[in-house]
């Protein structure tokens, strides 16, 4: 079993991802932090200490963050319709496990849920929840459950475990525990 990534690397990756216009699951953050630890180890073997106070290793943070998130923003090969339907079913079950109420999707190929009481609301009447799409050539895509909406990629594995992480993020947004990306003003 692999040792967990260092807290320092987790914090640096979380900070790097924090200013970007996307969402990242804990497993993606951990994977990027593992890669960053490995890059720091390699750099140390070449005489570049991890604690470089001049910031000369800052590019390693960017490299680890981008290389890892890139794996999950778009699949290496297009998914088949059977794979998409199976992952959407996993997401629907994960939403139920999170205590979320399914909703009729207003967006093609989405799994949608109702807003939670006391949480943020969307739509002109404040009764619209969120939806997540997964297409043949995309990662998990979060949107407001309406025909016209902005889209935010959730970088997560295209697996049942990834579906559970996506559902947890959606629940956190609906509960108001995670910043609402549709209202965030500081995107880069």
Distance between the termini: 37 Å
Mean pLDDT: 90
Please tally the helical runs, counting DSSP H or I stretches of 4 or more residues: 5
Number-wise, the strands total: 6
- The proportion of strand residues reads 5-15%
Question: How many whole angstroms does the radius of gyration measure?
Answer: 18 Å
Question: Structural class, from helix and strand content?
Answer: alpha+beta
How would you spell out the order of helices and strands?
Answer: HEHHHEEEEEH
Unreliable spans: none
Principal-axis shape equals elongated
Helicity range of the residues?
Answer: 40-55%
Number of spatially distinct domains: 2
Strand numbers in spatial order across the main sheet: 1-6-5-4-3-2
Reported for the largest beta sheet, the result is: 6 strands, mixed
Task: Report what the structure shows.
By secondary structure, this protein is an alpha+beta fold. It has two domains: 7-73, no CATH class; 81-175, no CATH class. It has five helices and six strands, in the order αβαααβββββα. It has helices at 7-18, 26-45, 58-73, 81-97, 160-175, and strands spanning 23-24, 102-103, 110-113, 130-134, 140-144, 151-155. It has a six-stranded mixed β-sheet with strand order 1-6-5-4-3-2, with helices on both faces. α1 (7-18) crosses α2. 32% of the residues are buried. The mean pLDDT is 90.
Question: Key terms for this structure?
Answer:
188 residues; alpha+beta; 2 domains; 5 helices; 6 strands; elongated
How do you describe this structure in short?
With 188 residues, this protein is of the alpha+beta class.
């Amino acid at each position: 079993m692999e040792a967990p990534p260092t807290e320092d690397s987790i914090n640096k990756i979380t900070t790097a991802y924090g200013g970007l216009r996307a969402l990242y699951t804990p497993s993606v953050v951990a994977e990027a932090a593992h890669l960053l630890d490995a890059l720091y180890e390699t750099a140390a073997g070449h005489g570049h200490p991890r604690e470089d106070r001049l910031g000369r290793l800052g590019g390693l943070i960017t490299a680890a963050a981008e290389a890892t998130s890139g794996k999950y923003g778009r699949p290496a090969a297009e998914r088949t319709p059977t794979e998409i339907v199976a992952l959407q079913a996993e997401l629907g079950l994960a939403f139920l496990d999170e205590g979320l109420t399914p909703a009729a999707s207003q967006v093609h190929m989405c799994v949608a849920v109702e807003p939670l009481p006391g949480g943020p609301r969307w739509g002109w009447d404040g009764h619209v929840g969120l939806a997540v799409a997964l297409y043949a050539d995309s990662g998990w895509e979060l949107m407001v459950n309406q025909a016209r909406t902005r889209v935010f990629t959730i970088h997560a594995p295209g697996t049942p475990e990834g579906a559970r992480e996506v559902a947890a993020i959606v629940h956190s947004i609906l509960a108001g525990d995670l910043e609402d990306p549709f209202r965030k003003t500081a995107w880069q």
